[in-house]
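Hey, resending since the last one bounced:
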Amino acid sequence: MTTHIDRRLEELGITLPEAAAPVAAYVPVVEAGGLLHISGQLPFKDGQLVTGRLGEDVALEGGTEAARLCGLMLLAQIKKHVGDLSRVTRIVKLGVFVNSAATFTDQPKVANGASELMADVFGEAGKHARSAVGVPVLPLGAAVEVDAIVQIG
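The structure tokens again:
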């Protein structure tokens, strides 16, 4: 059965990637009290990890795209866990970690790549609280990592 979210993804030209397996000792999603706590997701493009540091070897546009790719992986993890993205009633919060040079201060603009994706897919339910934090390094040299708290019904 095709849901309204499936139709919306199709309208947006979005094909979800395969949900990534954990790279260490954790699970991708924990469900508790109607909330999904989704572990940090990394950006993959054409099967390759997007690496680098914003303000050094990655431009703002590349960072924003990396955050969007992380958002797509979040959607893939949700779908794998609950089976149907139409069960999402609210994207509660995103935590966006940006591999940043010491002088880079546009983390909120980078984070918009994931935030705008959620609003595009879920409409009002995709609008969320957010943190956007610059860090000196991320796992595997990733440019961006995004985690999430999502309410399901």
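The first helix runs from residue 4 to 11.

Sorry for the duplicate.
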